[in-house]
């Protein structure tokens, strides 16, 4: 079996609209920290100098949002109310949603803005396959080339409302993208709304989740490394964060060797 990593890193050196903080405690600092904590909490005295090289274990402390790096959005991310009932948090979602046959749709030719249902139908024809229940659809927009730069948050394409509805009508429950969002960039949506007065252009992919239960994987990567648009399994199990609207994932594609 071959494994292809489909994830972007949680990287404090890259640009993020919500700053990421990553503090690293060295193994030597970790030894002193552990000794102090054991003495304070349990009254156990221990000299970290007795450890090999005076080192114990490193410790990483991160301050970040649940939407940093590759992550899965839960239904509760889209709003507090839904037409189908109470939206579930990420820790409440069934794990079998996040292991399934993958379908890559290449829409990298679409400029900044949105992909419509007609373009998706064209993509189905291009690959000779129509997604079905349980499939995990991955949109290759090419936006991951900008990961870690401000352009990643402004230069990409998303789904419009009818395109999102089409995938859900086919039985898809998890839709992924290598872009920052499954919706169009913020600036594009706002300018379109101001020009047209049409509120349906505002976060249509996300707001569809208020009517129909589904999940998004955002900030994927390496979709161009997949050897074919089908014939692989996607694994994108989200981290189990109680009461959260999203969870980080190390998304990957599994391919059986010939």
UniProtKB/TrEMBL annotation:
Domain of life from the UniProt record: Bacteria
Q: Could you confirm whether the keyword Ubl conjugation appears in this record?
A: no
SUPFAM superfamilies tied to this protein: Putative cyclase
Enzyme Commission number: 3.5.-.-
Q: Which UniProt keywords apply?
A: Hydrolase
Q: Which GO terms describe its molecular function?
A: hydrolase activity
Q: Which InterPro entries match?
A: KFase/CYL, KFase_sf
A Pfam family hit: Cyclase
Its recorded name reads Cyclase family protein
Gene source species:
Streptomyces olivaceoviridis (Streptomyces corchorusii)
């Amino acid at each position: 079996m071959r494994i292809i990593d489909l994830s972007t890193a949680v990287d404090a050196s890259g640009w993020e609209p919500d700053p990421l903080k990553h503090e690293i405690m060295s193994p030597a600092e970790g030894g002193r920290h552990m000794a102090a904590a054991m003495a304070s909490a349990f009254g156990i005295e221990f000299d970290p100098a007795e450890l090999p090289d005076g080192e114990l274990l490193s410790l990483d402390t991160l301050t970040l949002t649940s939407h940093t790096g590759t992550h899965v959005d839960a239904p509760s991310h889209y709003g507090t109310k839904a037409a189908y009932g109470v939206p579930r948090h990420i820790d409440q979602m069934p794990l079998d949603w996040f292991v399934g046959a993958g379908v890559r749709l290449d829409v990298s030719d679409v400029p900044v803005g949105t992909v419509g249902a007609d373009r998706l139908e064209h993509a189905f024809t291009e690959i000779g396959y129509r997604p079905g229940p349980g499939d995990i659809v991955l949109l290759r927009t090419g936006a991951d080339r900008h990961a870690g730069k401000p352009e990643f948050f402004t230069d990409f394409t998303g789904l419009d409302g009818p395109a999102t509805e089409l995938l859900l009508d086919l039985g898809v429950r998890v839709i992924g993208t290598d872009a920052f969002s499954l919706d169009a960039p913020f600036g594009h949506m706002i300018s379109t709304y101001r020009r047209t007065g049409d509120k349906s252009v505002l976060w249509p992919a996300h707001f569809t989740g208020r009517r129909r239960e589904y999940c998004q994987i955002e900030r994927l990567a390496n979709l161009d490394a997949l050897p074919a648009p089908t014939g692989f399994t996607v694994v994108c199990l989200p981290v189990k964060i109680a009461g959260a609207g999203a969870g980080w994932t190390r998304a990957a594609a599994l391919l059986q060797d010939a």
